[in-house]
Amino acid sequence: MGTLSSISFSAFDFNLGVKYPEIPTRFQSSKKTKSSCLLCGESIKRERVVGLKRLRWRCYSTSSNDDDGETSSSTTNKSKEDPEDHASLSSTPPPIPPLGSAYNNFQVDSFKLMELLGPEKVDPADVKLIKEKLFGYSTFWVTKEEPFGDLGEGILFLGNLRGKREEVFAKFQTLLVEVTGNKYNLFMVEEPNSEDLDPRGGPRVSFGLLRKEVSEPGATTLWQYVIALLLFLLTIGSSVELGIASQINRLPPDVVKYFTDPNAIDPPDMELLFPFVESALPLAYGVLGVLLFHEVGHLLAAFPKKVKLSIPYFIPNITLGSFGAITQFKSILPDRSTKVDISLAGPFAGFALSLSMFAVGLLLSSNPNATEELVQVPSMLFQGSLLLGLISRATLGYALNTCRSMHATTVAIHPLMIAGWCGLTTTAFNMLPVGCLDGGRAVQGTFGKNALIVFGLTTYTLLGLGVLGGPLSLPWGLYVLICQRTPEKPCLNDVTDVGTWRKTIVTVAIFLVVLTLLPVWDELAEELGIGLVSTF
Is 369 in a helix, a strand, or coil? Predict the structure, then answer.
């Protein structure tokens, strides 16, 4: 019988492994292991498929100097035990399967594919040249570099500003063109995650570098023109439909029942509506006029600043005629003041026309000689807006007569008043401080992106609860979430303050928006004499 006294061990390794998922055939490999039995020292040869960690014992003899786990025993005695025991006590398991390396290779290939398909990054040679030629001790001392842009395709230079930010930025823009040509856009932005202010006042600044083809919007395609045209035609149809619906007291009973009774299934003969199309056109013209004034306001404000705008994508809506239009910036804005001015110009132009039609419509509604042109609308309609309801109540009175009283079941008003009401409501919706709506752009340019996040969350909450917009809050909220939720991209100079008077105008505008979209609840409506609530 052999003895174990002549064997010395330097290490004993006990590993309890887990089973990996099944490995594809191409990742499998086989390795022949040759080792000595712990008890008898007899060489054992066998072939093992790599890809499975299992319970193993491992021993090292004092005479073993290789890394393959081959051991030689100093004993000459051979054990004649069962061969299965030799298999269970064989040493030196196969190396770690190549699953990790294959996975890493797959990750590397994925990153390379993303780099090929993603936007082109800034040339490292240009980054080095820009750091040498632009930045310096007297302007901006770079201390750190970080990725910049939506996909990290740019470079953000962090450091310490050594001069007046506007003068330094203007100097950098001139030098950038001289050094690199017309390849890049340089942005001056607030330093991210910085809690300290700049010693010269205001936030700490950083400078972001992006390629022009990455940072500037692309040209309008043919399909976008086609979509814009189709949406405009649908908006014309929805505006005419609003004009027809305003004559509900004159429409045939079958048509009224189909559009008001949820149990009505069989559609009426649409030819019955043709005689009412002509009388619906004035209201449709009013709604479309507000939309066109809105877009012209944007264009007039953008032209002096040399800012390009996309074609408007009108959004049809059967309740208001339209939800407004989506208009994109087709060039980078130079500063935040430009963003605020262009964003406010459209709503202010639409507001001016809408308010004029609303005022003229109110005067015509209170004229006893204009009864033939008036249309009957439910008095509950005036509960949709606290501000407009109070103005209507003050103009039409509490009990002028049964057809014009704000406290009657129905109220006779002029179609111009309906067009002005719809225009003011649409303008107020577009001035909500959320996403890239006009109100969101104005708030972002005036108070910054962080303020827009707070305003946006508050707006979404009020829309979700129905506090703003009444029955239109849900469709409008869905429209914003789908089409307009993303904030506007930063300006070239995204740091310089817009001034006190712009902040005042934006604040007053948001306050008026809330009053316009705030519904009048039943108790207050009864108190103010807006709507005959007790009859419903």
Answer: helix
The helix (run of H) or strand (run of E) holding residue 391 is: helix 386-396
Contacts of 358 (CB under 8 A, 6+ apart): 388, 391, 416, 417, 420, 421, 423, 424
CA distances from 50 to 26, 58, 87, 108 (A): 11, 17, 16, 24
> What does the H/E/C string look like for 210-237?
EEHHHHCCCCCCHHHHHHHHHHHHHHHH
Which tokens in the block code for residue 290? 């507000």
* DSSP three-state, residue 185: strand
Helix residue ranges, H only, 139-273: 165-180, 212-215, 222-245, 253-260
Q: Is 392 exposed, middle or buried (0-12, 13-18, 19+ CB in 10 A)?
A: buried
The 10s digit of each residue's pLDDT in 257-278 is 766 666 766 666 777 777 778 8
Q: Which residue type is seen at 53?
A: K
DSSP one-letter code for 316: E
User: What are the φ/ψ torsions at residue 36 (nearest 5 degrees)?
Assistant: -105, 145
Q: Residue 231 above 50 pLDDT?
A: yes
pLDDT, tens digit, 9 for 90 and up, residues 302-346: 999 999 999 999 999 888 888 889 898 988 899 999 999 999 999
Cα 180 to Cα 376: distance, rounded to the nearest angstrom: 68
- Measure the CA–CA gap between 68 and 315, rounded to whole angstroms: 73
Helix (H, G, I), strand (E, B) or coil at 36: strand
DSSP secondary structure code for residue 329 in this structure: B
Question: How far, rounded to the nearest angstrom, does the alpha carbon of residue 490 sit from its chain's CA centroid?
Answer: 14
Q: CA-CA distances (angstroms) from residue 444 to 338, 436, 452, 455, 480? A: 12, 9, 5, 10, 16
Query: Would you say how long the chain is, in residues?
Result: 536
Please give the single-letter amino acid code of residue 359: A
Give, in order, the Cα–Cα distances in Å from 265 to each of 262, 270, 274.
8, 14, 21
Strand bridging mode 56-61 / 9-15: antiparallel
E strand segments, 50-153: 56-61, 140-148
As a whole number of Å, the end-to-end CA separation of the chain is: 107
Two tokens, residue 479: 């429209």
Distance (Å, whole) CA 352 – CA 336: 24
- Residue 214: its pLDDT value, please? 80
What is the number of alpha carbons within 13 Å of residue 416 lying toward its C-beta? 15
At 52-93, the pLDDT tens digits run 344 444 444 444 444 444 444 444 444 444 444 444 444 455
